[in-house]
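Bench notes, afternoon.
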Amino acid sequence: AGVEATATFADGSVSGSSGCNNYGAAYTLDGESLSIMPGPMTMMACPEPQMTVEMQLMAAYGATASYAIADGQLSLLDGAGNPVATFTVLEPAALTGVTWVALFYNNGRGGAVSVLADTEITAIFGDDGSLSGSAGCNNYMGGFTTDGSSITIDPPASTRKACPDEIMQQEAEYLLALPTAATFTIQGDQLELRTADGALVASYVAGDN
């Protein structure tokens, strides 16, 4: 489906991204028996197929009775021993040195929306703390700092070319969203920027450099 969901198990709690929202849950482990009790989740609405993936993941957690690990994969199993979800260990990736192409961004009205067809929004994070890219019409530039998975993005400046109204609106919304980012996560070739309360700022896929 092209949607990545993640899970980090540590000290009786599991957290991650459902492909749309961030979630938290508790788990209990007894030998190979595993029970997962879903907990708090952010409440952002996302386009399909992300919402369907989220529902399937939460249902899988509710059905989990045991687990198995083989060949670098974690399988969650139901009471009959059938896999309900399978996770693969993620290789760490770098934020810098990649041209990130936006898939979704927060339009400032409470939701993540797809980037308009026939437009491309990009972000390039430099080793020197510079941020640049295309906002769909104009080029933009600014600065950023990171500390672990935390990120601070300065309000960017942009060139002044005029484009059709809907492209200009998309550009303005994206540039306003960027400085609201507080955390970043990279999973495979996907980058997500989120606010301090877990709302999606923008999601990207690594492009051809």
